[in-house]
Amino acid sequence: xxxxxxxxxxxxxxxxxxxxxxxxxxxxxxxxxxxxxxxxxxxxxxxxxxxxxxxxxxxxxxxxxxxxxxxxxxxxxxxxxxxxxxxxxxxxxxxxxxxxxxxxxxxxxxxxxxxxxxxxxxxxxxxxxxxxxxxxxxxxxxxxxxxxxxxxxxxxxxxxxxxxxxxxxxxxxxxxxxxxxxxxxxxxxxxxxxxxxxxxxxxxxxxxxxxxxxxxxxxxxxxxxxxxxxxxxxxxxxxxxxxxxxxxxxxxxxxxxxxxxxxxxxxxxxxxxxxxxxxxxxxxxxxxx
Length: 289
Ligand code: C2E
Ligand code: MG
Ligand code: MG
Ligand code: MG
Prior knowledge:
Elements: H1 2-32, E1 40-49, E2 54-66, E3 70-72, H2 74-84, H3 87-107, E4 114-117, H4 120-124, H5 128-139, E5 146-150, H6 152-157, H7 159-171, E6 175-181, H8 187-193, E7 198-201, H9 203-206, H10 213-228, E8 232-235, H11 241-250, E9 254-255, E10 264-265, H12 269-287
Parallel strand pairs: 2-4, 4-5, 5-6, 6-7, 7-8, 8-9
Antiparallel strand pairs: 1-2, 1-9, 1-10, 2-3
The structure holds ligand C2E and magnesium ion (MG) (3 copies).
Protein name: EAL domain-containing protein
Domain EAL: 24-277
Family: Belongs to the glycosyl hydrolase 13 family.
């Protein structure tokens, strides 16, 4: 009996696995043609200075407008893109599209700095420096207005080469941010070794702020450490006025999260920037103690 039950469980599990891998395979093959079918989209989410009440940059976030499944978020297909190597052409599309958009906003009188996420596989790609340089050159977007967001796990796998690549890209005038800070390993030693400008506190820490004393203590400590290392610190996932207040009290004024805006399609950015100043003044007003 127990054996039967075990067997059934196993079969069930294994069928699930097969369905899962079939879905992955189907997704991979349609992802392969997503660029030529023009199904990829970039959304933009503001990074704000909550003290001054202004937008400091917009982060480009990838979406896939799938013909049957609708709009799919990056968590559902970036891993597939990573495993299959498709992340390299997709990442190039992201860079080109973001820079072209940034140039267009610039020409319309909006100097919007942009941040673009780079996955580990992309930064290890031997052509990455050329790819980024080409995106800047072809679009005419200023390298000074571009920040690349990378994660800690990336640095673990191949530290020496990664530092070299980052240095080469920095020579183009590009800045670097360490994304999801606090979730990887050996965070502190990497902060010292890697030539980055900005640290983004992972939103999992913000969730407990200000009620959870541990989350609040960790957040405060990361802000203090970032500041003493002369890094720009951004808190991700700020959803409430209380979180905003807490961060301002710690001296962290750069924030990103639903409290300010969700990621939006490109055509909503210009009206958003027009209306942004007033709405942030309200938040900053509430927070000034
Ligand atoms: P990330 O770079 O850490 O981006 C922040 C994620 O948190 C975004 O999810 C954003 O929509 C979400 N978020 C922002 N504010 C809040 C908030 O207040 N509350 C909550 N609950 N969530 C918030 P999204 O767009 O689904 O992106 C997920 C991840 O996918 C990104 O995390 C990034 O690692 C990756 N990603 C996105 N676009 C790209 C891309 O173009 N290339 C690569 N390689 N990775 C990308
Ligand atoms: Mg990011
Ligand atoms: Mg993040
Ligand atoms: Mg993340």
